[in-house]
Design goal:
Helix content is 41%, strand content 15%. It has 182 residues and is of the alpha+beta class.
Length: 182
């Protein structure tokens, strides 16, 4: 089965790429969650409802790849680092719970961070382990919960009058190390 994917290069210094897969109607979220915790799946799995745009994820993945390259991961792996980077919280556990998959999630975004030629082998693991429909990442906005994102990132209507949701989210995650959000 050919997977529907979206791949972008990350910072050239890292020599890494980020590939995204969107799944709907996932039937085995609890099993996937267990495999992630046990290290059987080497990827990041995010609640699709909390993602404003693919750029949002690419910024978090890029930060994770750079931190890994510099041996400065805050979390234990590059995959949990993506979840941590998506959050405005500096609490690792909170970040993982908020953005990571739980036992009831039906719509998920899978993130692979990989070297140039490793994607095919990694995507085989996904097809073997995720029971759901792989659809085009271009459909991500159908699963985005704008109100939930505004709440999680503490974005109010005044800010959205001068910016958009994606820019507001990316600003927060890009500057998390330097500022405290209200």
């Amino acid at each position: 089965m050919k997977m529907d994917t979206y791949t972008e290069p990350l910072d050239s210094e890292t020599e890494m790429f980020c590939t995204l897969y969107l799944f709907t109607n996932v039937q085995n979220s609890d099993e996937i969650h267990g495999k992630l915790i046990n290290g059987e799946l080497c990827c990041t799995i995010i609640k699709a409802s909390l993602i404003a745009d693919t750029f949002h994820v690419l910024v978090a993945a890029n930060k994770a790849a750079i931190n890994a390259k510099m041996n400065q991961l805050v979390t234990r792996s590059i995959y949990t680092e993506v979840l941590f980077n998506l959050s405005i919280s500096k609490n690792i556990t909170h970040s993982l719970k908020e953005f990571g998959i739980n036992n009831n999630d039906k719509n998920i975004l899978v993130v692979l961070i990989h070297k140039k030629n490793d994607e095919k082998l990694m995507s085989k693991l996904l097809t073997d382990n995720i029971k759901g429909d792989n659809i085009s990442v271009s459909r991500l906005s159908e699963f985005t919960d704008h109100e939930l994102i505004k709440k999680v990132y503490k974005i109010d209507k005044n800010e959205l009058a001068v910016s958009n949701l994606t820019k507001s989210v990316v600003s927060r995650i890009s500057c998390k190390d330097f500022i405290l959000v209200k």
